[in-house]
Amino acid sequence: MTTKPLFVDTPFLQIEPTTNEQEAPLSVTELSLSLKACVEEKYSFVRVKGEISGLKKASSGHIYFSLKDEESVLDSVCWRTNASRLGIMPQDGLEVVCTGKITTYTGRSKYQLIVETLQAAGVGALLKLLEERRLKLQAEGLFDPGRKKKIPFLPQTIGVITSPSGAVIRDIIHRLQERFPCHVLLWPSLMQGDGCAEQVAQAIKGFNAIEENGLMTPDGIIPRPDVIIVARGGGSLEDLWPFNEEIVVRAAANSQIPLISAVGHETDTTLIDYAADLRAPTPTGAAEKAVPVRNDLRLTLSGYETRLKTVLYRLINEHDNILTALSRSLPSLKQNIEEKFQKIDDKTERLNNAVKTFIINKTNGLNIIALKLTKPDFLVEQAKNKLFQQIYPLASLIKSSILQKETQLQTAARLLDGFSYERILERGFALVLTTDGKPVEKAREAALYQELDIKFSDDVLRVSSKGGKGKNIIQKKPKKTEDNKQGRLL
């Protein structure tokens, strides 16, 4: 049972004056809630036709807009739960028919329409929206022919996006089996109604997400399709509208796998047809465009084979004739070989004679040289005599040089001993040293030390100032094995 739309004039709210002036007045909230209850009870279901304006999508997911005609404006809101189920997305300037209920917004004393369903107010409005969307996407370059990819000639795997229970998938598989059987990978999806556009876009992205070497699953490897077919049967403009949604068009344009669009009949045109790499008039036509006819390929290959054999036979015959003509002009092979052997025999004989002559000449030369050579014993004895003659003068010279150096060394030793400070100590001088063996040169330096060593020619005495100023204690220091060779004499 269908509820008829309710079109009535808004009644004026009549408030009867109270007879008791002492009765408590209504608060603003109480009055607003009373009005809200009256309006919602009276207008619980209405259908309103108007043009959308002031469209605004809140971050919460709610959609706010106004419905207007030539004279009036009606505020409208579509809650998030209903917004995802709308047949078409609202757009400014679109004439629509909204179904819902009238309520009041007590926060601002305004009434508004709660939209539950929304439909275009006729084919003209949808066509207008379709043309505006087409121009917008075309300006972005999504329909540029340069973006379209070439359909592979012989795809091994074809991905099909359609309803698994419809006749479309059966028609596609049947036609592929007739023409050129290949692997078909079906991605089930709604083909009309709520959620169709999202599922089709997700299916296109899902096929593109499969890696080149396939997708590993518990049931085996799912291959990546070589081409994608998006197909559904014919229908009204409203039925085919999901294939005009931007989410589907952008997914088709961004697909890295070549995509064939086969939506509706040949006369039906949707925006996915512009974004696809190839448009087919029907789902069956998409199967025909995806693969060639196997029998036609066999006939073509058979024709190529026949032509190739004919060309090869002709080429072989031509080359055989050329070889026959060339062989007639060639000398006898046996005669040519015998002549070459004769030349080899002649060269061998001449080479042997040359080697014998060379050996005889070298032997004679060696004999002549041998006669000229002196006996080795005589040469050795002669060299010894010459060596002895050179050794005697050299030995005399070395001995004289050694004596001269010894005399010079003795003279230097005497001079060194004469200049030694130990000789000076023997003449009555003494050497003042610090306890660590450093010489003391001046009296003011000696005052800085409490102990000093005085070195004589025969021993060393240690002088200490521990007894007080002017009183020195002298003690004998054990003689060292080696005296300090540096210092100044006092």
Please describe what this structure looks like.
This protein has helices at residues 28-42, 80-83, 123-139, 167-179, 196-209, 246-253, 271-275, 283-290, 294-329, 333-372, 376-418, 421-426, 443-446, and strands at 46-57, 63-68, 73-78, 95-105, 110-120, 157-162, 183-188, 215-217, 220-222, 227-232, 259-263, 278-279, 431-433, 451-455, 460-464, 473-477. The protein has 490 residues and is an alpha/beta fold. Among the domains are: 28-121, Nucleic acid-binding proteins (OB fold (Dihydrolipoamide Acetyltransferase, E2P)); 143-292, Succinyl-CoA synthetase domains (Rossmann fold, 3-Layer(aba) Sandwich); 376-406; 423-477, no CATH class. The chain has a five-stranded mixed beta barrel. Strands 7-6-10-11-12 form a five-stranded parallel β-sheet, sandwiched between helices. It has a four-stranded antiparallel β-sheet with strand order 13-14-15-16, with no helix packed on it. A hairpin with a 4-residue loop joins β4 (95-105) and β5 (110-120). It is flat, with a radius of gyration of 62 Å.
